[in-house]
Each structure stands twice: as C-alpha cells, then as structure tokens.
C-alpha cells in the first residue's frame, strides 16, 4: 500500500503542540500555533540540529534519527523552563512523542520521509483527578477525533465503561502481548501480568475504584508476545458523573528501557560501594544483597578453591546468602563445601552465566548442594542461574540466583544485568580477598610459633589459640609449655603489644629466649629469676617491646596427686584457679610486678600455691576477658563464672567452651590450662 500524502495544515487548530520534519537531515517543515506558543518561532526549512540548539536538544535529534532508521515510534520525557509574559519563568515537564508520518506533500517544502512530533505538557497530570471531573461526552468525542494523533504518543489508550466493558482507543495491546485486547475488566487482564505483580495490581485497582476520585497509577510487568516480561506504567482517571463513576480513561506505556536504565544505575552504584567489608564473606554478602529483591528472589555466593590437579574437580564453599522477605528461612552459613556439578563447572570454565529451569521446586540432582536444593524445593523455585564472579582475570566465586514461588525464569536482560552488577564489585572484592589471604598467612605464621603442649604424667594439659578478626593483622599473643630437665613443667602465657608482623616477630623472639633461659638454669631457678633475666637479655639484644607475661613452674609432690605451682606475673591478667567445688580464685599479688621492657632492674617476686587433683589452673590473654569500654575486672568475673559452670568438662572441652563464648572477636585469644589427675588405685603414680 503506498504512503498516504500528509498535508500538515490539518494540524493548525490542534490543541497539542505539533512539529513536522522531513528528509534524512530532519528539516523543520511545519509547526502549529500551539507549538509556537510553547517554544517560540523557529525557522522552517532548516535541519533540526540547527533549529534546536538549547541544552538537551541533542537527545531529541538522536530520537529522530532512531525513528527514521527503524520506523518505530519513540518517546522522550524532559523538563523545560518557559518564559512567562510577566517576565518570570515556569518549570514544566513535557513528553515528546515522535513517529513516522508517511511521505510529506506540501508546496514549497522538502519531500521525503516525514516524522510527526507532538509535545504534551504533562505537568497538569498532578491535577488530573480534578480535571477528569470536567470531562464530558464532547471531550471524549474530541479524543476519538484525534485518535490518529494520539497514536504518535507511543502508548496504549483505553476506556473502561461503568458496566465493566472496555474499549481500546489507541491500539497496541495485541501487538505488545500477542493476545486480543480484553473486552471487559477481569477477562484476561491479569493473565499476562507477572505472577508476583498480580495481587498488588488487583488491590491497587480496587482501592482506586473504591476511593473516587483517586487517580490510578501503577508500574508492573506484562508478558510480551516473545514470552519475556516488560515493565509498563498504567495511568487512569475517573470521569465522575452524579457522584458516581461513569468511565475510566487510561493509558498503558512500555517503560522497560527507562526502568531498566534507572535500576542498572542504582544497582551498579550499590555494587561499587561494597567497600567497607573487612572480610571476604562480608563483601560477598553485601554484593548478594544488591541483587535481592530487585533482580532475583535469592542469591547465594560460593567461593571456589583451586583444583588439586589440572582438570580436577572444582570445590566450592558457601559463604553468603540473601533472600527477599516472605520466603522460607535460609539455611545457616556453616561453610558447607561441595564439588561443582557439570553445569556449574562449565559456567566457571566458560566464564559465562547459565540457567537451569525446572518445575516448581524440582531441582535437578547434583547441580547444587543438597541443603540448598531442599531450601529451593520449599521455596517453589523455578530456576537457578549460575554466574561466575571474576577478579583479576580469575574466577574466584560462583553466584547462584533463583526465582521462587512459581515465578518465571529470568530473561536475557535480567541475567546480563545480574552478571554486570557482580562484576562491578571487582575492586572491593579484590581488596577483601587480599586481606583474607594475608590474614590466612599471618595466622599460619602465628600457629607455627605455638607448639603442642607436652604429655605430662599425672596431669592433663590443653591449650587454645584463636586469631581475632582484625583484617590481616597478626597479634603477639602466645602460650607455651615444656618439660624441664629436672622433670618439672614450665608454662607461660604472654602478650606483646601491637597487632602487626613486628609484634609477632618480637613475640617469637621473647618466647625463644624465655624457653632457653628456663631450660638451661639449674634447679632452684625461680619463675621470677627467669622473667628478670629475660627482661635483661631483651634490653641488651635490642628486642625489647612492651609485653606482659605469666611464667610458671609446676612440680608434682608425692603420690596423692597434688602439685605446686610457682609463678611470677609481669603485668598480665591474673591466673585463675578453679577448685573442684566452690568459687574460682585469682592468683594475684598485692603488689603486682611491672610488665616486661619497663625496668629490667626492678626485682620480681615468685609466688607459690598448691593445686589438688581435679583443680584447674587457667592462664589466658586479655582477648578472653576484655571488652572495649568495660572494666577488665568484669570480664575476669565472667571468665570465673563460665569456668565454674563448666569445671567438670574434660580439659580440652573446657578450653574450647571458654574460647567460643567470647562475643567481641576483634582481639586474639591464647589460653592454656593445667589439671592434676587423681591417682589411680593400685597403680604407681
């Protein structure tokens, strides 16, 4: 069918601002009176790029280029400041709609493909409810008369009558959804709406009908004819007569592109802001939270471990998971580890997202961990998308997102945006992973300096060390126990000031010197003597650093299971002696000795206390009892209470119980415990 010649004069009296351009360079060939009133006189016959030079005009010209290129109508929304007759200005908002308008045929004007552009002042929509009351049959007839003009607005226009029947004034529903326009409210409208949006849409419409003259406006997703979902905005105002609604007139506009652009900008900004996490697990949790609930219902992150050999299986550990409200509680993060299945392994090797689709909750076996599969079944998941997370060219983690409660699987645009958001956080993830690797190396170094306590006849010995969570810092806490040449047991607990490699190095030097001094001195050398000589040697060798320590020498007495402890305290928290019954007792002196490296010439004191069978001696660092802003004595009281309640546990269990009960995890914890065992009848001690 040939193009219908377009005579622009038919728009002279139109109440909507109209402009016509023609040709490849979009020469302005016509504007009506309404256009001149809004935008002033513009020269005709001149290309649009030269006519419209105000800020933001390049976006309008680009829209004309796009319409001419593919013949598809487009819409642009933009603010504009207008000059008023009184010399002032007014800020208004306009919707510019451009659509192909056939071939221009007018004397004295260029020929060629024409584009019709309408400019609609949408500022008045703020008062649309009041305006709607004044709508009349005559206005409706005028609306029908300009139906072809409204089609240029790139939106669907519809009318719902008082009896519930509906008419489509400007067609577009079937082209958009692939289904005929429903002839009445409630007959097919919700069938093409996204399942997660249906209830809210129905509720909002019912509220608007009940609370006249409320204007209805809502954004929701509609299934297009290609099977994918797109966001639309529906707006409607009631035409009220005699106190009751006669009709609703409304529009439905495809806003998918602008909605996705705004969402993309917001999510990418949030992903790029994942910078405050000190641990990799926290960084991955914050990253997962950027996707939920805007792009998916749940997101879990699995950190990958390098395979043991080329071509070997890849092992992953779940470190974070986030779900939207209303879904079943997520399984706890207990760092469950599993081997990647074929689909997940391919996503990692190809560095490309992949989606598994299935019926409600029927997750394919072996594709994800069993605990996750059980949760997805309970949540009625319909898909799982596996997205590799790449940092510095290496896949370091795998994110798994899922759509639940019968929701359709994500479309290609959703998956692409999920992947882009995950990749945007490379810088903060790189920092968190580097801190994690450094911290792991520091902990390995620290543990290498802590030996396993020796086996001691007639007594149990146990120790625990737990690093704090201060990034990559390694502390100066240490414990030690070793057998002396005369058969006595030496025990030490110490803490060098600082949380860095220098503190750990000094700790290692002090520990080695103390061991040597205690071991080579003859019987009768007291713990105070050992600490004093350590202080002198540290100062002379230049390795002195502020440190606290308790050094003890334990000697067995007779066959009744009793031991004696000789101890000296260099400014350290006091040892705790837990009896078989009764309250624990602090081994503390009235006049405490100074810490190490304060004054090597000051005398130190050795104290002596008996330890009976079943009693427990605890030596510990301040990380076990110290809470910032709280007096140290309160923490020691809590330790005594916890030790008394758990005194009948095996010694190793007691140490684990005390270490795991600490709430403030920022500082290192070192703990060593000694307990004489009762003698066995008929057996030499």
Describe this structure in words.
The protein is built from 18 helices and 27 strands. The chain is α+β, with helices and mostly antiparallel strands and 685 residues long. It folds into 4 domains: 5-121, 2-Layer Sandwich (Beta-Lactamase); 128-254, PAS domain (Beta-Lactamase); 260-438, GAF domain (Beta-Lactamase); 450-629 and 645-676, Phosphatase 2c, domain 1, CATH 3.60.40.10. Strands 1, 2, 3, 4, 5 and 6 form a 6-stranded mixed β-sheet that branches. The chain has a 6-stranded antiparallel β-sheet with strand order 14-13-12-17-16-15, sandwiched between helices. It has a 5-stranded antiparallel β-sheet with strand order 8-7-11-10-9, sandwiched between helices. Helix 9 (256-272) runs parallel beside helix 13 (412-424) and helix 10 packs antiparallel against helix 14. The longest helix is centred in the middle third of the chain and has 23 residues, at 426-448. It is elongated and about 120 Å long.
Integer count of domains: 4
What is the first-to-last residue Cα distance?
112 Å
Overall mean pLDDT stands at: 82
Q: Report the major sheet.
A: 6 strands, mixed
CATH superfamily of the largest domain: PPM-type phosphatase domain
Give the strand content: 25-35%
Examine the secondary-structure arrangement and name the CATH architecture of the largest domain. Answer: 4-Layer Sandwich
From the alpha-carbon coordinates, what is the Rg to the nearest angstrom? Answer: 39 Å
């Amino acid at each position: 069918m040939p193009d219908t010649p377009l005579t622009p004069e038919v728009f002279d009296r139109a109440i909507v601002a109209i402009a016509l351009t023609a040709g490849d360079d979009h020469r302005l060939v016509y504007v009506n009176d309404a256009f001149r009133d809004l935008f002033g006189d513009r020269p005709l016959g001149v290309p649009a790029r030269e006519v419209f030079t105000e800020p933001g005009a390049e976006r309008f010209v680009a829209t004309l280029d796009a319409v001419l290129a593919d013949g598809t109508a487009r819409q642009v929304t933009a603010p504009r400041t207008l000059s008023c007759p009184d010399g002032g200005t007014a800020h208004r908002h306009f919707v510019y709609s451009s659509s192909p308008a056939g071939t221009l045929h007018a004397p004295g004007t260029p020929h060629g493909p024409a584009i019709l552009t309408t400019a609609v002042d949408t500022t008045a929509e703020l008062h649309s409810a009041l305006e709607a009351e004044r709508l009349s049959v005559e206005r409706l007839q005028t609306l029908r008369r300009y139906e072809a003009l409204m089609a240029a607005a790139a939106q669907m226009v519809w009318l719902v009558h008082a009896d519930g029947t509906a008419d489509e004034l400007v067609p577009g529903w079937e082209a958009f959804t692939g289904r005929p326009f429903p002839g009445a409210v409630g007959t097919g409208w919700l069938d093409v709406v996204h399942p997660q949006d249906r209830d809210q849409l129905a509720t909002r419409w019912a509220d608007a009908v009940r609370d006249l003259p409320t204007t209805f406006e809502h954004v929701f997703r509609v299934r297009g004819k290609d099977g994918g979902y797109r966001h639309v905005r529906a707006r409607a105002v009631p035409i009220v007569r005699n106190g009751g609604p006669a009709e609703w007139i409304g529009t439905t506009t495809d806003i998918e592109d602008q909605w996705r652009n705004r969402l993309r900008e917001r999510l990418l900004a949030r992903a790029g802001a994942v910078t405050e996490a000190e641990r990799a697990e926290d960084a991955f949790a914050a990253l997962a939270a950027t996707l939920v609930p805007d792009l998916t219902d749940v997101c879990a992150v699995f950190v990958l471990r390098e395979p043991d050999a080329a071509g070997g299986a890849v092992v992953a550990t779940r470190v974070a998971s986030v779900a939207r409200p209303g879904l079943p509680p997520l399984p706890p993060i207990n760092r469950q580890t599993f081997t990647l299945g074929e689909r997940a392994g391919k996503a990692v090797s190809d560095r490309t997202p992949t989606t598994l689709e299935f019926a409600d909750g029927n997750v394919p076996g072996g594709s994800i961990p069993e605990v996750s599969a059980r949760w997805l079944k309970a949540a009625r998941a319909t898909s799982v998308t596996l997205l590799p997370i790449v940092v510095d060219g290496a896949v370091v983690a795998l994110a798994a997102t899922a759509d639940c409660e019968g929701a359709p699987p994500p479309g290609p645009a959703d998956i692409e945006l999920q992947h882009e958001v995950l990749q945007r956080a490379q810088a903060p993830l790189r920092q968190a992973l580097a801190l994690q690797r450094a911290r792991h190396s520091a902990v390995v170094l620290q543990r290498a300096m802590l030996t396993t306590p020796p086996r001691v006849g007639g007594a149990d010995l146990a120790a625990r060390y737990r690093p704090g969570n201060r990034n990559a810092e390694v502390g100066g806490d240490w414990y030690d126990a070793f057998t002396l040449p005369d058969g006595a047991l030496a025990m030490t607990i110490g803490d060098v000031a600082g949380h860095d490699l220098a503190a750990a190095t000094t700790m290692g030097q002090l520990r080695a010197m103390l061991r040597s001094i205690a071991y080579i001195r003859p019987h009768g050398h007291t713990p105070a003597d050992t600490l004093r000589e350590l202080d002198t040697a540290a100062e002379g060798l230049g390795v002195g650093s502020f440190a606290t320590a308790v050094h003890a020498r334990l000697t067995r007495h007779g066959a009744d299971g009793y031991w004696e402890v000789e101890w000296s305290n260099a400014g350290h928290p006091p040892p705790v002696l837990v009896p078989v019954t009764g309250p624990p007792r602090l081994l503390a002196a009235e006049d405490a000795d100074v810490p190490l490296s304060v004054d090597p010439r000051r005398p130190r004191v050795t104290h002596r206390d008996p330890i009976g069978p079943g009693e427990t001696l605890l030596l510990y660092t301040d990380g076990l009892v110290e809470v910032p802003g709280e007096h140290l004595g309160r923490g020691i009281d809590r330790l005594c209470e916890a030790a008394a309640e758990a005194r009948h546990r095996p010694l190793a269990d007691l140490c684990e119980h005390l270490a795991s009960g600490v709430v403030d995890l920022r500082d290192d914890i070192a703990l060593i415990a000694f307990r004489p065992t009762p003698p066995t009848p008929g057996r030499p001690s």
